[in-house]
Design a protein that fits this description.
Elements: H1 3-28, H2 33-45, H3 47-57, H4 64-85, H5 100-110, E1 119-123, H6 126-138, E2 143-148, H7 157-169, E3 173-179, H8 184-187, H9 190-197, E4 201-205, E5 226-229, E6 233-237, E7 256-257, E8 260-264, H10 268-283, E9 309-314, H11 322-333, E10 337-341, E11 345-346, H12 349-360, E12 364-370, H13 376-381, H14 386-392, E13 395-399, E14 403-404, E15 407-411, E16 415-419, E17 423-424, H15 425-430, E18 433-439, H16 441-456, E19 458-460, H17 463-466, H18 471-481
Parallel strand pairs: 2-3, 3-4, 7-14, 10-12, 11-17, 12-13
Antiparallel strand pairs: 1-8, 2-5, 5-6, 6-8, 9-18, 10-15, 13-19, 15-16, 16-18
Helix pairs in contact: 1-2, 1-3, 2-3, 4-10, 5-11, 6-7, 11-12
């Protein structure tokens, strides 16, 4: 029997064995029924492409080196968080009925303490964000640490680069960690080389090697956005290090609309610790861990409004399902209102059910989503949820002034979540993300004003008109929804 005949007989057997193996894995794997059915549909409808996709994307595999390194580093950082808890002047022990479940969940699963005495301000335009960052960099004395998914040259970003180089020349240590895929063009740029030549340390996170696609997932991404200056000033939010006037102008969605929160206070040290952990995981180089600096001059302990912040750090290796548990807890705690903004809306069934239940029990639930999306698949798949949500009384507003990229949740105009988490399975399961949780009336008012501004630039969906949309659109929505495990 020649080689061609052997292949002709062996190939169907191998295909059959892979399909059976994947099917058994799906039936025994701990996951949502929606994800299981989607994978099975893909594998049985397009077997070759489906099997190939599953072998690359179907399992959350960090790779042996990363798993080992993360396990070795966890005790070190857990001990450091315990040291922070001993700083009683910056630790918040108060709990209200609204915040207690979410704060307790975060601390029990992450051991990251809740910090008080922080000054918080939302910056909602690229100009105000970059201006504030540059001014703080110009005042830096010892260290500047950054984590970003995307760093793209041009426009306002060059002002940040210039400020960083000036800071390094005066002796400030600068460490920048960037996702390999999101920032791949920057790594090959003249500006990246110039920054490195001037002493700025720039490291790649989650480097992709195509010849190892079957050994570890290549679509795990470092999606955090963090800046920490001198362990005292920090930024986090949804904006990458890009200038929207130049970024993805060919995607036909308009300029990206983002926010960053400027933090002045002790919770900056927690974000600094997350940067140090990410940096050591990628480079095996240790960065100094400094305890928080009290900010009693801003919000003394006897004041009523102390700007308490809880940091949620999530991603592969972190407590499983924490993002979905935190969002569900926040949604179920609502008694009056829920406002959510997200650029990518393909949530789990648990989150969908929580939103529907909240609306049915009389909570005013409002989603503000972009009308145009830079992801064709997400744009269509997200619409499959609209029928059920609208029927339950959820308000859906489609934003028309660009790609609304802000990720935020506001509960009862008191409890706010702002960060990098999208309402999709990629953020829930695959990406390294960070979210700040704040129960503070002053900060909640800033978030509320932000949402009001977004609503003014949006059009509310009408349920009666929505259900009359053409049948071909419903079919396209369902077809793209089948690929939700890959979105």
């Amino acid at each position: 029997m020649d080689f061609e005949h052997i292949v002709a007989y062996a190939l169907p057997i191998v295909m059959w064995a892979l399909i059976v193996s994947i099917t058994l894995r799906q039936l025994t794997k701990r996951q949502s029924s929606t994800a299981m059915l989607s994978w099975l549909m893909i594998i049985y409808l397009v077997p070759v492409a489906g099997i190939f996709a599953y072998l690359i994307f179907g399992e959350i595999n960090l790779g042996k080196r990363r798993v080992k390194a993360f396990k070795l580093l966890q005790p070190k950082y857990a001990q450091w968080f315990q040291q922070i808890k001993q700083q009683k002047n910056v630790i918040d022990s108060d709990r209200t009925l609204l915040s207690a479940p979410l704060f307790d969940l975060a601390q029990n699963r992450l051991s990251i303490p809740c910090m008080q005495g922080n000054e918080l301000h939302i910056l909602d335009t690229p100009e105000s964000i970059i201006k504030s960052i540059v001014e703080d960099i110009q005042r830096a004395k010892t260290s500047i640490n950054m984590v970003f998914y995307i760093w793209a040259d041009s426009g306002l970003v060059n002002e940040v680069m210039t400020a960083l180089i000036d800071a390094r020349r005066r002796g400030v240590n600068v460490h920048i960690l960037l996702d390999y895929v999101g920032s791949r063009h920057f790594f090959n740029s003249e500006n990246c080389r110039y920054m490195r030549e001037n002493g700025i340390e720039i490291a790649e996170a989650l480097h992709v090697q195509l010849f190892r696609v079957f050994l570890r997932r290549i679509d795990l991404r470092q999606h955090r956005k963090i800046i920490v200056i001198d362990n005292e000033i920090a930024y986090t939010g949804s904006m990458n290090m890009v200038d929207p006037k130049f970024f993805k102008q060919d995607s036909n969605v308009g300029e990206w609309v983002d926010v960053m929160v400027r933090i002045n206070g002790p919770v900056s040290s927690v974000l600094n610790g997350l940067h140090a952990l990410d940096w050591e995981l990628e480079t095996e180089q240790k960065l100094p861990l400094s305890l928080p600096v009290p900010n009693d001059n801003l919000y003394p302990l006897h004041t009523a409004n102390r700007h308490t912040v809880q940091i949620l750090a999530t991603g592969p290796g972190y407590p499983e399902d924490l993002v979905q548990q935190a969002l569900s807890t926040a949604i179920f705690s609502a008694r009056e209102s829920i406002f959510i903004t997200s650029p990518y809306f393909v949530p789990s069934q648990n989150i969908t059910d929580a939103l529907v239940t909240a609306a049915l029990r009389g909570v005013n639930v409002t989603l503000i989503l972009p009308r145009k999306n830079d992801s064709l698949m997400v744009g269509w798949a997200s619409r499959t949820y609209f029928d059920e949500l609208l029927a339950a009384g959820v308000n859906i507003h489609l934003f028309d002034r660009g790609l609304l990229h802000t990720k935020s949740v506001l509960i009862d105009n008191k409890l706010a979540l702002v960060g990098t988490v999208n309402m999709d399975m990629r953020s829930f399961l695959l990406n390294y993300e960070v979210t700040m949780v704040v129960e503070d009336e002053e900060f909640a008012n800033e978030v509320s004003l932000l949402h009001e501004n977004y609503q003014q630039g949006s059009v509310k969906l009408d349920y009666q008109r929505w259900v009359k949309r053409p049948m071909y659109k419903r079919i396209i929505e369902k077809l793209f929804f089948l690929f939700s495990p890959l979105l």
